[in-house]
Specification:
Elements lengths: L2 H12 L22 H7 L9 H10 L14 H19 L9 H10 L1 E2 L5 H21 L4 H18 L5 E2 H25 L6 H14 L1 H10 L17 E12 L10 E11 L14 E8 L2 E17 L4 E13 L4 E16 L4 E18 L14 H6 L2 E17 L2 E14 L6 E15 L4 E16 L6 E14 L2
Length: 496
C-alpha cells in the first residue's frame, strides 16, 4: 500500500469512518488482504475503531485502495477533467453558432445572481443528452479509482459548473437534476458493463478488441486507461467489478397497436427487446450501490426507442431465510408509446415474496412504491372534447412536455418454471405533479401480461398484451385521457 493511502486510511479510521483495505475482502474465500483495518488499529495501539466485516465491505467500495487491476486513485483529476469536458462542449456549441456559448465574467455573475430557471430544450436533449453528458463526469471519477458516492459528487460538480459557467442563460434546474442523477445511473451502468468486456489478464488481439469495445461503452475510462498505460498492462480484473452472474435476454417479434382494442388489430410492426441482468437484483443482501442492476431497452412499434430503463440496487435485505426481500433501487426511465411519453429519475422501494409451488415451479410477488425526483411528461395540448380550456400558446411554441416531481407505484406476479419466466402479470403507474408547464396532475399507467413457452433451455415462444392509459387533471378543470392497447408475439433467447 502506498504511504499516502496508508495515512489516508489511518485518518479515516481516526474520524470514525470505516475503511477496508482491499476488494478481496468482499469474498471471504479470497484470503486476507495485505492490510486490514485491524492491522491499522493495532499499529495505533488499538485506539482506532475496528468496523464489523459487513460495514467494512461497504467501506471498501467507498474508499478502495489499489489492487492488481484497479486504476490509480486520483481525487482531484476527475474535477479537472469535468471542467475540460465543459470547455469542450462549450467549444462545440461555439462552432454550432449557439449564442448561449458566449460566456464570461458578466454571464457568470448574472447566473449566480439570478439562480435557476426551467429551460425549453427539446425532449431528447433534456431526457437523453443531459444524462449522457452527466455520465461522462461520473465515469471520469470511476476511471480514477473513486467510489460510487465520490464519483456522484463529480457528476454534481460537472453539472453545476456547466449550468452556471458554460452557458450565458440562467442555470436550468431540470438540467441539473437530469445531468446529475441520470449521469450517476447511466455512468455506473456504463462503467460496470465496460468491465464485462474488458479483460486485462488477456493479451494480443483479443485484449485490444476488448479494450476498444469497452472504450466505446465507457469513453472516459478508455481514455484514462490509454493515457496511463493500463490499456496494455496485464493484470487481474478488479474483484469489485466481477458480478455474481450475468444474464442477457433478447426478444424479437411483431406487435399490433392502436388507440382502441379494435384499431390495435390493424397493422403489425416489428420490435426488439434487450435486457441485461447484472448480478442478482432479486435475492441476497447487498450494501454496494449498483453491485446488481437491470438494464432494459426496447425499439420498434413505431418508435426508434420505445423504452430504456435502469434499476440499480442501492440496498437489499432478505428476511425469513430469503423468502421475503426488501430492496431500494435508483432508477432511470425513458418511455414512449401512443398514450404518453415519460422520462425521469427516481427511487423505488420493492417488497418481494418468493414461494416454491413445486420442485420445478415457483412464484414471485413484488409490490413497488417510490418517488420521482423530477419527471417529464408530454403535454396534452388540446383539451378533451367538450372542454373549453385553451391550449397554452407559449407552451406550444416552446416546449411540448411538462416537468414535475411525483410518485410511482406498481406490482408484479410472476410464475417461473425451472428458474425461467413463464407467466408474468405486471402493473406500473407514475403520477406527475406539473410545476413547470400546464399546471396539472398526470397519472400514467401500464398493465402487461406476458406468457412464454420454452422450446429449449435458451429459446422460448412468447405472446403478450399491454394496455397504456393516461389521464390528466388540469387545474382549470379539464380531464383529457389517452389510451393505447397493443398485442405482441415474439421469440426470446436467454443466455445460458
Amino acid at each position: 500500500m502506498p504511504p499516502g493511502s496508508l495515512v489516508a486510511a489511518v485518518l479515516l479510521c481516526g474520524l470514525g469512518v470505516p475503511v477496508r483495505a482491499g476488494a478481496q475482502a468482499s469474498d471471504p474465500s479470497a484470503g486476507a488482504p495485505p492490510f486490514s483495518v485491524a492491522d491499522l488499529a493495532r499499529a495505533a495501539d488499538s485506539r482506532l475503531p475496528i468496523p464489523s466485516n459487513e460495514v467494512a465491505a461497504v467501506a471498501d467500495e467507498q474508499a478502495p485502495t489499489p489492487c492488481a487491476g484497479c486504476p490509480a486513485r486520483r481525487r482531484v483529476r476527475p474535477y479537472l477533467e469535468s471542467l475540460a469536458l465543459n470547455v469542450m462542449y462549450n467549444g462545440i456549441n461555439h462552432l454550432r453558432g449557439h449564442h448561449t456559448a458566449r460566456v464570461g465574467l458578466n454571464s457568470w455573475g448574472a447566473n449566480l445572481k439570478h439562480g435557476f430557471e426551467w429551460d425549453v430544450n427539446p425532449w431528447l436533449v433534456n431526457q437523453v443528452g443531459h444524462p449522457i453528458q452527466g455520465s461522462q463526469y461520473y465515469t471520469s471519477g470511476r476511471a480514477h479509482g473513486l467510489s460510487f458516492w465520490e464519483a456522484s459528487a463529480v457528476a454534481a460538480f460537472g453539472s453545476a459548473t456547466w449550468e452556471f459557467f458554460a452557458e450565458n442563460n440562467r442555470a436550468s434546474l431540470n438540467d441539473l437534476v437530469n445531468t446529475t442523477l441520470g449521469g450517476i445511473t447511466l455512468g455506473e451502468v456504463m462503467h460496470r458493463t465496460a468491465w464485462l468486456v474488458r479483460d486485462p489478464a488477456r493479451t494480443g488481439g483479443a485484449r485490444r478488441r476488448g479494450e476498444l469495445i469497452a472504450a466505446a461503452i465507457d469513453p472516459l475510462s478508455g481514455l484514462v486507461r490509454a493515457l496511463s498505460g493500463d490499456m496494455s498492462r496485464v493484470s487481474e480484473r478488479p474483484a469489485s467489478l466481477v458480478p455474481s452472474g450475468v444474464a442477457i435476454r433478447a426478444s424479437a417479434g411483431v406487435l399490433w397497436q392502436g388507440d382502441t382494442f379494435r384499431t390495435a388489430r390493424s397493422a403489425a410492426r416489428p420490435f426488439i427487446d434487450l435486457d441485461l441482468i447484472y448480478g442478482d437484483v432479486r435475492t441476497g443482501r447487498s450494501l454496494v450501490p449498483f453491485n446488481d442492476f437491470a438494464l432494459q431497452f426496447s425499439a420498434g412499434g413505431g418508435r426508434a426507442v420505445s423504452r430504456a430503463g435502469v434499476r440499480g440496487r442501492l440496498f437489499s435485505q432478505p428476511f425469513t431465510e430469503g423468502k421475503y426481500q426488501l430492496t431500494i433501487f435508483q432508477t432511470f426511465d425513458f418511455i414512449q408509446n401512443r398514450a404518453y411519453a415519460f422520462g425521469g429519475q427516481g427511487v423505488e422501494v420493492e417488497a418481494a415474496l418468493s414461494h416454491r409451488l413445486s420442485p420445478r415451479i415457483s412464484l414471485w410477488l413484488a409490490a413497488v412504491g417510490g418517488g420521482t425526483v423530477l419527471g417529464a411528461v408530454d403535454s396534452l395540448l388540446a383539451p378533451a372534447a367538450g372542454e373549453d380550456e385553451e391550449p397554452d400558446p407559449v407552451l406550444i411554441g416552446r416546449r411540448t412536455y411538462d416537468y414535475g416531481p411525483g410518485v410511482r407505484f406498481g406490482g408484479v406476479i410472476q410464475m417461473l418454471r425451472d428458474g425461467l419466466e413463464w407467466v408474468t402479470l405486471s402493473y406500473r403507474g407514475y403520477q406527475i405533479n406539473v410545476v413547470d408547464g400546464s399546471r396539472s396532475n398526470h397519472v400514467l399507467q401500464r398493465l402487461d401480461l406476458d406468457v412464454r413457452v420454452p422450446v429449449t433451455r435458451a429459446l422460448a415462444l412468447g405472446a403478450g398484451g399491454e394496455y397504456f392509459f393516461r389521464k390528466a387533471y388540469y387545474w382549470s378543470g379539464g380531464t383529457p385521457t389517452d389510451q393505447s392497447p397493443q398485442a405482441r408475439m415474439f421469440l426470446v433467447w436467454t443466455s445460458p
